[in-house]
Automatic annotation (TrEMBL):
InterPro entries: Amino_oxidase (IPR002937), FAD/NAD-bd_sf (IPR036188), Flavin_monoamine_oxidase (IPR050281). One of its GO terms (molecular function) is polyamine oxidase activity. Residues 2-125 form the Amine oxidase domain. This is Amine oxidase domain-containing protein. It comes from the Eukaryota. The lineage of its organism: Eukaryota, Metazoa, Ecdysozoa, Arthropoda, Hexapoda. PANTHER family: AMINE OXIDASE DOMAIN-CONTAINING PROTEIN-RELATED, FLAVIN MONOAMINE OXIDASE. Pfam families: Amino_oxidase.
C-alpha cells in the first residue's frame, strides 16, 4: 500500500538501501487500485483528493494541475444517469435531491445520536422522499448511491458500521472536497510516481519497485 511504499521511498532517499518490501498481493497499491477499461482509466479504490489545505496528497500533486473538480464532470450537459432497467433520470433533479440527502448528515445533529450513521440517515432520507413525493426509481437510486457517495467522502465501506458521533467529529481539509484526477492522467496510481520521484523527473526515480517482492506475505517476525 501507499504507507509501505512511502516508507521504502523515504529510506532510499536517505541512502538506506538494505531493505526489502514484501507485498502479499500481485500488485502494489493496497486501496489504491487503478485499472484500464475500454481504453479509459478507472479508479476502483481511492478516487478523490478531499481538500486542499493540510492534505498530504494535494501538497504533493496539487501544483502540477492534474486534478479537476468532480462537480465539473457531473453537470447535466455532460452526465447521463440511467439504471439497469433503462430508466433515465433527470440529472438536475437527482443532483438537487442528492445534495439534500447529504445535508441530512452534514447539517444534522449526529453528535448527540446514539447509533450508526445508517440508523440516523435512512429514516430521515425516507422522510425527505415523502415530503418531496419522490418516485420509486429515484428513491431506490438514492438509497443505493447516497451511502456510496458518503463512503467515498468519509472513507467508510458501510454506514452501518460508522458511528454517528465519530462521523460528526470527522476532520475535513479545507478547499474543494471533490477533486479527481483529470481525464488523460493515469489515475490515482500516479501518486506512486510522485512518491518514487519518477514524476516529474524520471532520472531521479527511487528504485522502490526493485526492492519490492510481490506475492509474499509476512507469516513470522523474529
Amino acid at each position: 500500500g501507499v504507507s509501505g511504499f512511502t516508507a521504502a521511498a523515504t529510506l532510499l532517499e536517505h541512502n538506506v538501501t538494505d531493505l526489502v518490501v514484501l507485498e502479499a498481493s500481485d500488485r502494489i497499491g493496497g486501496r489504491i487500485h487503478t485499472v484500464e477499461f475500454g481504453g479509459v482509466v478507472l479508479d476502483r479504490g481511492a478516487e478523490f483528493c478531499h481538500g486542499e489545505v493540510d492534505n498530504a496528497v494535494y501538497d504533493l500533486i496539487g501544483p502540477y494541475d492534474l486534478l479537476t473538480s468532480y462537480d465539473t464532470l457531473t453537470t447535466p450537459n455532460q452526465c447521463l444517469s440511467i439504471n439497469t432497467t433503462g430508466h433515465v433520470f433527470n440529472v438536475t433533479a437527482l443532483r438537487e435531491l442528492g445534495m439534500k440527502a447529504f445535508q441530512i448528515i452534514y447539517k444534522g445533529n449526529l453528535s448527540h445520536f446514539n447509533g450508526s450513521v445508517a440508523d440516523y440517515f435512512f429514516p430521515r432520507l425516507d422522510q425527505l422522499f415523502e415530503e418531496r413525493n419522490v418516485d420509486s426509481y429515484t428513491r431506490e437510486a438514492l438509497r443505493r448511491l447516497a451511502p456510496l457517495w458518503e463512503g467515498a467522502a468519509s472513507g467508510t465501506d458501510d454506514l452501518s458500521v460508522s458511528g454517528a458521533w465519530g462521523q460528526s467529529n470527522y476532520w475535513e481539509c479545507e478547499g474543494d472536497y471533490n477533486l479527481k484526477w483529470k481525464n488523460g492522467t493515469r489515475g490515482y496510481k500516479t501518486i506512486f510516481d510522485f512518491l518514487s520521484k519518477k514524476f516529474p523527473n524520471p532520472s531521479e526515480e527511487l528504485p522502490v519497485m526493485n526492492k519490492t517482492v510481490l506475492g509474499k506475505q509476512v507469516t513470522r517476525i523474529e
